[in-house]
Design brief:
By secondary structure, this protein is of the alpha+beta class. 42% of the residues lie in helices and 18% in strands. It has 17 helices and 14 strands. The strands form four sheets. Strands 6, 7, 8, 10 and 12 form a five-stranded antiparallel β-sheet that branches. α2 (81-102) packs antiparallel against α16 and α4 packs antiparallel against α6 (144-170).
Length: 479
């Protein structure tokens, strides 16, 4: 086969992107967001919260051993997973809301991939220099200096990845205790394995893959189009003002010269873009609306004496009005439209529902499981006995006395295994399994009937809170 018959390659090798340093209001905003979000992530496991002597004092803790999630004053039990599901639904609706209002603003400012990529680029710029210096180093042959810089950068990146993985495992155990165990190599193997995996993935995604994660791995760019419309405020280029672009003209301009737009084709917007696109080509899947191109373009416009805003946050519906010299619609009119109002309403309803459920939930709970093998037992005196496993849940921070009782339209007697009383002490913040016997006298209606309805009650004698479960008493009768 000749070279001309060779099919073209469907794969294009990645061109490394070296964003140039830029300053401006959006870059400053991103610095603040990066500092706050990284601070929250790294420092939260070390915040203490006093819950009493029997509970962990870590403010945010995923206690897998005891199947519990602690968030400051809130404690979520396994059967209350609906709270986590509700928070995930709120997060999804919030993402829909922000995307429909302002495009991929989440991706550009607070997405973990963006935050950590900014951190890795910052350290790379600190070690290797700004864009031109990094480009020269990339293209330069391997020398002692290049090896030294690359090794040093690798060490710094590995330290960031290790700190990221370390902070993650601290959310699942008491942070000070686990730190000492890690330093003395006495921590569980799963802790070291998790830290190793997260160190590798953090360096790979934030330091090496970077924009490739946003473009190829993240599904959101493919979904965002369904959330956006022409009223969505997003980063865009005012083509009607910038075209036709051309180099900056100095001195008097010839009257016969062709008209020229404000864009001087300086490529500043492209050189600062973390995903390497040209916003002047229109809306693109790769754009994360980080607005760094706005800062770069505004800086150039200020230097050449042109109005700022050649690249700006704007809605596509404003274009015809701006071309005709009509002031665009106020921002609030773009944001408050049926789609965003619907998302806001749904988000608020879920949030209110979670808050109401959180305040209405009881501090004591019970579950009842009838022992059906055998269905009933006939005692020596002719009484019929049913056996139940009652699981009592005490959510208080101290031991509480619980009293068990039953109600039924028929005469039944309740007994507890291991005690002659009907009061048991349930340990703080735990569940307690108690076997309960319910008996019917010989010849009584429940003893001879097939089924009798009854209700088991539990009362917290410390707070008088009560809970109940309905169940069935099985007698000797046939259905």
């Amino acid at each position: 086969m000749s070279s001309s018959d060779t099919p073209p390659s469907l794969y294009s090798a990645r061109e490394p992107i070296f964003p140039r340093r830029v300053s401006g209001k959006f870059r400053t905003l991103k610095w603040w967001i990066m500092g706050i979000t990284l601070g929250i992530y790294y420092l939260t496991p070390w915040i203490r919260w006093d819950r009493g002597p029997n509970l962990p004092d870590q403010a945010v803790l995923v206690d897998l051993a005891n199947r519990r999630f602690f968030f400051f004053m809130i404690e979520i039990w396994p059967h209350e997973f609906y709270f986590i599901a509700g928070l995930l639904i709120m997060a999804g609706l919030g993402l829909f809301l922000f995307t429909s209002a302002m495009g991929r603003v989440w991706c550009g400012y607070t997405c973990p991939q963006t935050v950590w990529t900014d951190l890795f680029i910052l350290t790379e710029r600190w070690i290797e220099g700004d864009r031109n210096a990094r480009v020269r180093l990339w293209n330069a042959p391997w020398t002692a200096r290049k090896v030294r810089l690359r090794v040093f950068k690798g060490i710094v990146w590995a330290a960031i990845g290790l700190a990221t993985g370390g902070a993650w495992v601290f959310y699942f155990a008491d942070a000070p205790t686990l730190l000492m165990d890690l330093l003395t190599f006495s921590a569980p193997p799963v802790a070291y394995i998790t830290m190793g995996i997260l160190t590798f993935t953090t360096v790979m995604f934030g330091g090496i893959a970077r924009e490739q994660v946003c473009i190829y791995m993240c599904p959101w760019p493919r979904i965002q189009a369904a959330m956006m419309d022409e009223d969505t405020i997003t980063v865009a280029y005012r083509e009607w003002r910038g075209e036709p672009r051309g180099k900056l003209r100095k001195g008097p301009v010839d009257a016969d010269a062709e008209p020229q737009g404000d864009c001087i084709d300086c490529m500043a917007c492209v050189n600062v873009c973390p995903v390497g696109i040209d916003i002047r080509d229109g809306q693109q899947l790769e754009c994360i609306t980080c607005a760094l191109c706005i800062d770069a373009c505004d800086d150039v416009m200020a230097k050449i004496g042109k109005p700022r805003g050649l690249i700006d946050y704007l809605a596509l519906t404003d274009a015809p009005e701006e071309i005709d010299g009509i002031p665009p619609k106020p921002v609030w009119k773009h944001i408050l439209r049926p789609r965003t109002i619907l998302y806001t309403t749904l988000w608020s309803l879920v949030g209110v529902g979670l808050v109401v459920a959180l305040f209405l939930r009881s501090e004591i709970e019970m579950t009842v499981a009838a022992v059906r093998n055998p269905t009933f037992v006939t005692l020596s005196d002719g009484s019929v006995r049913n056996i139940y496993d009652v699981r009592l849940r005490n959510k208080h921070g101290e031991d509480r006395p619980f009293r068990l009782s039953l109600t039924s339209e028929e005469p039944l007697r309740i007994e507890l295994e291991g005690t002659e009383e009907l009061v048991i002490m349930v340990p703080a913040d735990s569940t307690f399994l108690q076997r309960v016997y319910v008996s019917a006298q010989p010849g009584s209606t429940p003893a001879d009937a097939h089924r009798t309805d009854l209700r088991l009650w539990v009362e917290d004698l410390g707070s008088t809170d009560r809970a109940y479960k309905d169940t069935i008493f099985n007698g000797k009768g046939t259905p």
